[in-house]
Fold each of these.
Amino acid sequence: MTTADDHNDDVALAGEYALHLLDAEARRAFEDRLSTEPALRALVAEWDADLVVLADEIAPVTPPVVVKDRIENILFPHAAKAPAGVSLWRMLLGGGFALVLGLVVLMILPPADRSDIFAPQFAVDLAAEDRSLLVHAGYAPDTGVLRIIREAGGARPGRVLELWLIAEGATAPVSLGVLPDSSTTDITLPAAFGDAIAGGTLAISDEPIGGSTTGAPTGDVLAAGVVISI
Amino acid sequence: MPTRNDVEEMIVQVGLGDRAAFSSLYDATSAKLFGVCLRILNDRAEAEDALQEVFVRIWQKSSTYAANGYSPMTWLITLARNLAIDKLRMRKAGSVDIDEVYDLADSGPTPEAAAIASSQRGQIDACFDELEPDRADAVRGAYLEGHSYNDLAAKYGVPLNTMRTWLRRSLGKLKDCLNR
């Protein structure tokens, strides 16, 4: 093979890399070369610049407001609270009261003492589209505590809010109980439930007092979100 | 609409740890980058997760931006696209392999890339037009939908190796055309 052939081969290979077409093994081998071959890096950069023009046809879509909050909470967890903003994890560190309602399989406990730092590894924001209901949830697998913080909204008169977990790949939601009126609630989940939290979806539905009697949501689903690792 | 220079300045400031600049950069670019994630993943919740990772990565990597020779939107869109495709591949593989997370080549100035101007839009369109329609679509599908060789081979009903040969040849032709 001539030098020109090698070059042409690298041009195509860099293009495959830029398109993300190489399999894992080939990609690693290529990246090993990238770290020592500036000319190859330049080829990838050229492809990235050439191909990015294709993205012109992709229309911008405004992401939900909660995404920015989540990002800033990950990057700047100890940031001073902005006057109008609400820092999720400051709230999660706060205390509150819990009322025992809901289903028998679960223990709903008062939040741990303030000095006992709650360190969630999973979180999700549940927001109604018009943000009339906004609930933060954080889950700490080491203690099995799912902390629910209601920032805005509540049940309608004569109704209650019921929390549901839909495990990844599951076809039916499982009730985690009726949410008490307090702003903060700790729910200690059985281990089997805890495992389903990661990657699962939490949802809140509107139900009659005492909660759904059918084992499935009967009223409107007011808010839902996928639990993410933080 | 912020200009290229505005976005570039924001990235540089973010690289210096400026949180206000990070907030401005998010406001200026998140809709486009969310559009990219949605296009690849075709799932709102996954696209939101991807966008979150994109901005965490931007915060972590922006200090190396000045050295990489990418124009600002190319850098951001490429980063978003690659993270979204990583998620797409993980979804298909059903597992997560941290080693496979794609990284941009982030050193070594490439003046050619930096010099890319909007007039090249017309040039790349013209070069795609020189390819057979199927093959131009395959390259577009790989870029815009994150199709893998397996996806493309299934879509066009050809063996994997044939698909790869087609695509590599198309890339060679594209490059020849772009270099003219």
Amino acid sequence: MNRLISGKSFIVLIVLAVVLIFFYPRVMDSYFLHLTIAIFLAMILASSWDILARTGQVSVGQAGLFGIGAYASALLYQWIHLPPVLGILAGGILAVILAVGIGYLTLRLRGIYFSITTIAFAEALAVIWLMIPDITGGAMGVSTPPLFGGNRILAYYLILAILALVIMTVWLIEKSRLNFAFTAIRQNEDVANVMGINPTRYKVLAFMISAFFTGLAGGFYSHYNTYIIPYEVFGLNVSIACLVMPIFGGLYTILGPVIGTILVKVIEEFLRVTVPYGHQIAYGLILVVVVLFMPDGLIGLWKKRIKPLFLKKSSVG
Amino acid sequence: MLELKWIDVYYGNIQALWDVSLSVKEGEVIVIVGSNGAGKSTILRTISGMNKIKKGSIEFGGQRIDLLRADEIVRLGVSMVPEGRELFPRLSVRENLELGAAYIDRAYSRRTETLQWIYSLFPILHERGSQLAGTLSGGEQQMVAIGRALMSRPRLLMFDEPSLGLAPLMVDEVFKTVTKVSQEGVTILLVEQNVRQSLKMAHRAYVLENGRMVTKQSIDVDPEKCILCGECVEICPVSAIDMTVNGQPENPGRDLGRRVSRKSQ
């Protein structure tokens, strides 16, 4: 795998990283902690989008699942005072149920139909939410008390746990037969089919996994943010963010979405402070630059251009 | 073993096959020849379940399979070597082979045994086991593709143009391996444009033109009876058939009639 770092120092690095991640909230101030939580949340969205992308399906409606997760946990709290952690889980499960429905309807079709349906799905949910304000709170949104009484450090650990779960799931997929099935379907559905793979089943499965984590992220967001409105959680912004970050970092990898998210979020945060309006243009610019100049994302850039430089140097010296 | 009866196949509204019937018996090597666009690949796609039929029936081992999904049909023992090989270039030869068995439980439990069998059939694959499939030559890739199909332990193996895009020497090699596989007891259905060579190894052949079987029965390929003329074989197999050997065709078609009469002069 990574020959640049030997096995021993790799383990040391990982241990160091884990220790750092654990003690991070103790040393950081509130602003950076908030930024980190936002980044972790985005990482979950990016990684779970990438799980589905491994089967060759491009979802442009992750916001629908995100919003369902957010509203499910917020409304369940409002109605029956369900504890936030359970509410977040309920959001994830509800998102899975919706994903199964949409998946079986559209994932048997090939090409762009699924992408179109997902956009329509997210947008339709936003409209429905505005149409039945008695149940959903309408345009006024829903508010919940702060998560863990506003304790950001606990919130940090919760999102860290979800993120760890996502990364572990992706890792398990990569190690298992599932990855081959996903790759086969992405490369050529017919060939996958004659190898004994039922493409629809695996695509729906990937969509379910993706939906679960996106729903969890939505649930977390609603409690952490304490306030959600339809046009924010069901908005196209969320869906686009879900796909820009992994494409920027590098598709079909564990690290790609993670690195892509960090960079996109840092750029966005920097622009948010310096450019008061329209900082979201960063998403568009990043997408254009990546598609034109580095189709394999940052990971591809590293593997093709930067790593060889290092290897050459070290072999000379 | 395999029995197609009067099938019609459409792509959307466009009809691709008309009243196609054919039968394959256990242990046979059957070749379907025909020019570009005659519908040869469509027949294979239909048998493997990727296209659905509008009319007729397909039976495999006495069971109707035309309503099953492609992945269910593979499990029954019908495997296909797809046109253009379609390997996973970034995976090793061994991984590519193992993939062939990975999703079929019956084959997965016997995969190491099958792998040894395939290595004994194609020793070159054993040597190249850890090499990336994308770095192999076209002929070697074709063997990997055949090996991958064999990993599912098929009773019937279908080849879609195995000689496509290969150098003449490699084409010989590929046809030799097809014969080898046949000698291992696997029934073979082959689709080819390379008529001369594929007929050499076939027990029987069918000729397809514009989506229709030219003859109702399969044609005899005994070299003694020499059903092929010399030059034009590669271009148009239909014009090469000496109809007097096999009797009159059921539905010769306008074009065919002209060509046959020209030949008899």
